[in-house]
Structures are given as C-alpha cells and as structure tokens.
Amino acid sequence: MAKMINKTLLLTYSYLLIYILLSSGVILYNKWVLSPKYFNFPLPITLTMIHMGFSGFVAFLLIRVFKVVSPVKMTFEIYVTCVVPISAFFASSLWFGNTAYLHISVAFIQMLKALMPVATFIMAVVCGTDKARCDVFMNMLLVSVGVVVSSYGEINFNVIGTVYQVTGIFAEALRLVLTQVLLQKKGLTLNPVTSLYYIAPCSFVFLSLPWYVLEKPNIEVSQIQFNFWIFFSNALCALALNFSIFLVIGRTGAVTIRVAGVLKDWILIALSTVIFPESTITGLNIIGYAIALCGVVMYNYIKIKDVKATQPITDSLPDRITKDWKAKSSSDGESPRGIELNDEEAPLITSRLSHIGRTQLGTHTAV
C-alpha cells in the first residue's frame, strides 16, 4: 500500500512538473514566435488560428477516426446557446492575450495576470454566480493596488499592450463565468479532447473575422516567413499543455494546484528575463507583484474554504489517493474533484472551482 501511494505521489508531482514546463514553454515559445526581434511573425490572430485548427483536427481524429474518446451528447440548442458564446469569448481572450506579446514583456504580462481573480469576481457578481463580500472585496483591492504599483515600476510600460492584456483577462473571466452558468446548468462536462472538438472549430470561425480585416492584408503585402516545423512544434506544445492540464486535474487538489501556479509564475518571470534580455524587472515590479500575489493567495484560500465548507469531510490524503487511484479506470476522463486549471490553452474544462480564477495553472497565447 505504501509503495503504491509513493508511486502515485511521484506520478502526481511528475505531472505537475510537466504542466509547469509546458505552460511556461508555450508562453515563452509564443513570445519568441511573435516578437519582431526574434522569429518575427507579428500575426497573433494567425498564430492562434493555427493552434485552433491543429487542436480541432487532432480532437476530430481522436473522437471520430480512432474513437479513443467518446463524444458527448451535444444538441443544436446547447451548441448555439452555450458553446458559441463561450467560444466567442475564448477566441477573444486568446486574440487579445497574444497581441499583448507584441507590445509588453512576458514578465509584465504575468504580473498583469494577477488581475484574473479580480476580473473573474467582478464578472461572477454581475452574472449572479457570486455575491459581493467585504472580505473578498478587500483582497481584490489588495490585488489591484499591487498591479498598479507593478505597472508604475515598469520601465517599458506600453499602454496599448496593457489594454490588450487586461481586455483579454476580462474576456477570459467572462468565459469562465459563462462556462459555469451555461454548461454546468445543462449538466454537460467536457474533457480536454471533447472541449477542443467543439470549441476549437467555433473559435477558429470567430477569429477568421478579425483576421480577414486586420492581418490578411499584411500577409499579402509583406514578406512573412513560414517555417512548418516551427509552427507544428508550437501547436503541438499547446496541445500537449491541454492534456497535461487534464492529467494534473485528475491527480491533485485545489491547494496543490494553486501553489504550483504561483511557483510557475515566478519561474516564468525569471526565465523570461534570461531568454529575452530586453525584459527588465525593477524592484517596484517585484514589490507590486508580491502585493498582488498576497491578495491572490488570500482570495484562493477563501474560495477553497468556501467550497470545502459545502462538502462532506474528506478522507485523509493516503485514503483519497488510494480511492482516486482505484476510481481512475472508471473516471470516464473527467476530473473526480472538478478542479479547473485555467490556462490560455485550456478552452473548456468545467468545474465547481472555475470561478476561483487563474493563479495560473494557467493562457495561452493560443491554445
């Protein structure tokens, strides 16, 4: 028994490590591809569409051709009223988030992403899925103050890039809330494969509209280099990130996920300054981000405590691991505890904790 538990824990932390590496790698890879100083492919909508097309194609093969995963019961009414609006905001979040890489650094983007709980809480209150509370409001205020301080300390502050990123954050927050409101009320749960199968093609269509207006003319008049292996490997990493998120969700609890997300953010900020020397971090950046992070951690703690208060007393960790291990074979590919890792590359993994927001175990610059 002890040996099985140790093996399970080792596998769990291996999945967490894979997730952290892939999530950081996708963000850094996207920045490298889009940046005019490096690969010089300044077409974020095109890159996002490549990711969507590749992910949707792979999902189609797995579901319809190889039948590795069974499709869910999707009616036309559910698709139009649920999948379409969620896809629209998902596509928007990817479009704005990827465009931000053209204007601001990866490190500053990660600092701005600390606003995700603030945006998610605001959208949840507006949509009626959460209530305005004084303790949560104070945490949101702390996060906002931290982000403002961090922005003030940004040497290469860019208004356009900041607006793109913040807009993308609010689009993603609305997507999370809509996922909770629309899909969960329908009793529909999608795993990463089925979510990509339904979401990716619809998002591709939504992205084609701004692509035709904003990027198609630039492709025709400029010399844009296209390297098949670069884009194939980039899309493959984004797809692998989706599956790693699924593996992590099925193996860990909310606390572990949030701790891993905080760790990933710091690693990504440090790595980005090494890989992209033009990214300069100031002391005020760090102080502001640390303040915001305190608010994020406190917010997550409150939300996790609220969820636990509504659930029966859980088993001890060894018992829970053993039960999860035994239940895995019959899990149908869905998270036994309904936890969501919100990453740019994760289109539609629903959960009871979806409103907690992303301390980033999760974006994408394009799933």
TrEMBL record:
<feature type="transmembrane region" description="Helical">
    <location>
        <begin position="159"/>
        <end position="183"/>
    </location>
</feature>
<protein>
    <submittedName>
        <fullName>Probable sugar phosphate/phosphate translocator At1g48230</fullName>
    </submittedName>
</protein>
<feature type="transmembrane region" description="Helical">
    <location>
        <begin position="102"/>
        <end position="124"/>
    </location>
</feature>
<keyword id="KW-1133">Transmembrane helix</keyword>
<feature type="domain" description="Sugar phosphate transporter">
    <location>
        <begin position="15"/>
        <end position="300"/>
    </location>
</feature>
<feature type="transmembrane region" description="Helical">
    <location>
        <begin position="78"/>
        <end position="96"/>
    </location>
</feature>
<feature type="transmembrane region" description="Helical">
    <location>
        <begin position="255"/>
        <end position="276"/>
    </location>
</feature>
<keyword id="KW-0813">Transport</keyword>
<dbReference type="InterPro" id="IPR004853">
    <property type="entry name" value="Sugar_P_trans_dom"/>
</dbReference>
<feature type="transmembrane region" description="Helical">
    <location>
        <begin position="41"/>
        <end position="66"/>
    </location>
</feature>
<feature type="transmembrane region" description="Helical">
    <location>
        <begin position="136"/>
        <end position="153"/>
    </location>
</feature>
<keyword id="KW-0472">Membrane</keyword>
<dbReference type="GO" id="GO:0016020">
    <property type="term" value="C:membrane"/>
</dbReference>
<dbReference type="InterPro" id="IPR050186">
    <property type="entry name" value="TPT_transporter"/>
</dbReference>
<feature type="transmembrane region" description="Helical">
    <location>
        <begin position="195"/>
        <end position="214"/>
    </location>
</feature>
<feature type="transmembrane region" description="Helical">
    <location>
        <begin position="282"/>
        <end position="302"/>
    </location>
</feature>
<feature type="transmembrane region" description="Helical">
    <location>
        <begin position="9"/>
        <end position="29"/>
    </location>
</feature>
<keyword id="KW-0812">Transmembrane</keyword>
<dbReference type="Pfam" id="PF03151">
    <property type="entry name" value="TPT"/>
</dbReference>
<feature type="transmembrane region" description="Helical">
    <location>
        <begin position="226"/>
        <end position="248"/>
    </location>
</feature>
